[in-house]
Amino acid sequence: MNNNKVFVAYIPGMDTRNLAKTWTPFISKCLEDYASSKIFTNPSNEVLSTLITGMNPHEHGIWQLKTKESLDELREEKLIDKIPDIFTVAIQAFRHQFFHDCDVPTIPPGRRRAFELRRVKFRGRANTSDLLHQLGHVPSIINSMSDGNIIYSFSDRLHDQNTLLNNVANGEANLEFLQFHALDMLGHWQLDTDEKLQEIYNQVDTFLKNLYEKCESKNIRMVIVSDHGQEKVTGDINLKKKLSEIDVPQNEFNYYIQPMQARFWFHSNRAREKIVKILKEITPGNVLHFEDLHKFNINFKSPEYGEVYFIPEPGYLIFPHDFYHPLVNLVFGIKDPQQRNRILNPKHVAYHGYLPHHDSEKGLLLLTDNLSKINHSEINAADIAPTLLNMIGQTKPAFMTGISRLSA
Ligand SMILES: [Zn+2]
User: Fold this and answer.
1) CA 311–ligand 1 middle distance (angstroms)
2) How many Å lie between the centroid of ligand 1 and the Cα of residue 45?
3) Model pTM above 0.85
4) How confident is the model at residue 2 (pLDDT cuts 50, 70, 90)?
């Protein structure tokens, strides 16, 4: 094999703990026969930005949101802030369905206007490929390859397998990605028992085997990448209720709540002391100053992306969070059969993005041939892009701080 074409089967949510012989015979055989490494991920539910830029979050800057430079506007009470959140958020969410111009529409205007959004706004297969080619004007393996000879495909539907098998891995690009997102999507909303998990893992395993056979027939090297697993949800934390009970005016702090992480910005010592105190009382959780995240490769030097983080233990969900609104939930539940369960139960059944040393967060880089070895038993998410470039015989661009972990 000497043409160095590489096909990456990127399967978010493929939990390394579920890769057993009975569930995933093909992957298990590859794990025995070929080089593999765990991936140390970011404490986030979105690791793709790090995977494809070869940079850490403080370097690529795609880390949900940061505060705007000037906070004057924040302190000023606006007329709209007198309208209850339930109405303003419903209007924003309704607008978002048609115009897509208001990311995270479920955050009320009073909190929203302090933030500059630094998210990748994935909307499933509608925009993922285009989006990654721009990636918020941050350079990546996709938008800065000198020859542009790269293909990125996305699907979050399990029943797309046969179509995908025809459409991908035809040897048209030096580097080709297929992001098969169905496992992550189903994991969040449906896979709450081992029986269901086994059935889906078995299907994904067969799909990967078929992709591998196609790649082999076309002389393409295949690599399997997962950037996290999923932890079954066992409990939830009503953080918004706790915040509503403290005796601190809303203009003295701001917050942003994802299901597996809450961030706080404080404008007074009183707010800082009271809120940190209640966060520390929540037992299935961790309270971290932004500098504590340095040990997870998140090296922000100032608190603009959040001063204090609250990250629950795996399996705990913060609910309600800033992405929850009954209207939004209903729309997604009706639009997507894979998310139908959320009409009756708006809480995810499994989640990820907790602190990276937990088993639920371990990603996997797995080769399907003996042409290379991987130097380490665990590599960083930012090492993936330089490693893939190495496989196709290209040197990494200067902006990538990750390191190729491949050896001959
Ligand atoms: Zn996910």
Assistant:
1) 16
2) 6
3) yes
4) very low
Q: Are residues 304 and 180 in the same domain?
A: no
* d(CA 350, ligand 1 centre) in Å: 9
Measured in degrees and rounded to the nearest 5, phi and psi for residue 32 equal -75, -40
Looking up residue 17, the CATH number of its domain turns out to be 3.40.720.10
Cβ pair 319, 238 in contact under 8 A: yes
Domain count of the chain? 2
Token pair in block for residue 387: 């490693």
The encoded tokens of residue 39 equal 């991936």
Query: In 20-112, which ranges are continuous DSSP H helix?
Result: 25-33, 48-53, 57-60, 72-75, 85-99, 109-112
- Quote the domain boundaries for residue 132: 6-60+122-229+355-407
Is residue 1 situated within a structural domain?
no
- Give the pLDDT mean for 142-146: 76
Q: What angle do CA 231, 236, 237 make, to 5 degrees?
A: 130
Q: From start to end of 168-272, where are the E strands?
A: 175-180, 221-226, 231-232, 235-237, 253-258, 261-266
